[in-house]
Design goal:
The protein is mainly beta and 104 residues long. The protein is built from one helix and five strands. The protein has a five-stranded mixed beta sheet, covered by helices on one side. The radius of gyration is 14 Å and the shape is globular. InterPro entries: Transposase_IS66_Orf2.
Length: 104
């Protein structure tokens, strides 16, 4: 994966409400990491993993979530395992869509 390298200072771990968040609306194996998730973004979602959007992946049990985001300096992968309960499906995510835009 070759993403554009900025000549400016690299930011680290910055997510905010001005970014576009896209949910991969299919259960995802949480063993997947940077390269395999980038492949899903490209092949299944029809997006460029290096465009600055935040891509959201949830497992079948809906108790694990990963967010993949490119920022100057490299890819960032956030991962969370819920201690209890499950993640709900956003109202904006239709079962027929592979990719859903999420509004925060």
């Amino acid at each position: 994966m070759n993403c554009f390298q900025s000549s400016g200072p690299a930011t680290m771990f910055s997510l905010n409400d001005s970014m576009r968040y896209l949910l991969y609306n299919r259960p995802t194996d949480m063993c997947k990491s940077f390269h395999t998730l980038s492949g899903i973004i490209t092949d299944a979602m029809g997006q460029d993993p290096c465009n600055g959007n935040v891509y959201i992946f949830i497992n079948r049990a809906r108790n694990r979530i990963k967010l993949l985001h490119w920022e100057p300096g490299g890819m960032v992968l956030y991962s969370k395992l819920l201690e209890a309960g499950t993640l709900g499906k956003p109202d904006s995510a239709s079962d027929n869509e592979v990719c859903a835009n999420i509004e925060w």
